[in-house]
């Protein structure tokens, strides 16, 4: 599997050949910026600033560039022209973006939210362009709070209910897929941490944080983290139910404290 540096260099070479002068700035966000990149599990998240609003021809060229990238790790990200970038949009507007390696240009971009700007401002790593600290970006902390509370209530709470329903009739010792359990065991704690501290934490940090604030779910989070690190950890229906319970507990606690 190629390294982060190799994949990003390959992308820049391809896009510069296809669209010379188009990509002005490229910043690493996500797990790479947080120092928590896990080969085989993590994607390479980016925010890409362009010299102009993309035309139809630009979008076709970008689609071809991303189609030619290696299947793993995915190079994902959001494209914003320079003017729009400095407006710091956080309204999930339609914008070109890449998710799981697939380029999309005509859909709302779910990554354009307040937490993106918090993460970029605190941890973004410049590959091309000025250092983030020189850009004059700001963080709307009230918007971050509202976004995280809404995300917990409208995404994570229903997801927990769906997970619980999916295993409702299964014996507790039946093995289940690890991805969904790990996602639920670690994800909500990251939002809770941001609400509590105004900062971003990795999935590894989220496991330790969950063990502090809701200790009953710490062991499951630790097993989820060990699975992400490549250890041979298996999960059962009982674990899936506990993961759903942990989501409910994190959401309820966040709403009680900050809702």
UniProtKB/TrEMBL annotation:
The keyword Transferase applies. GO terms for molecular function: nucleotidyltransferase activity. Signal peptide: none annotated. The keyword Transferase applies. Keywords: Transferase. Coiled coil: none annotated. Pfam families: NTP_transf_2. InterPro entries: NT_sf, Polymerase_NTP_transf_dom. Residues 16-55 form the Polymerase nucleotidyl transferase domain. This is Nucleotidyltransferase domain-containing protein. It comes from Micromonospora inyonensis.
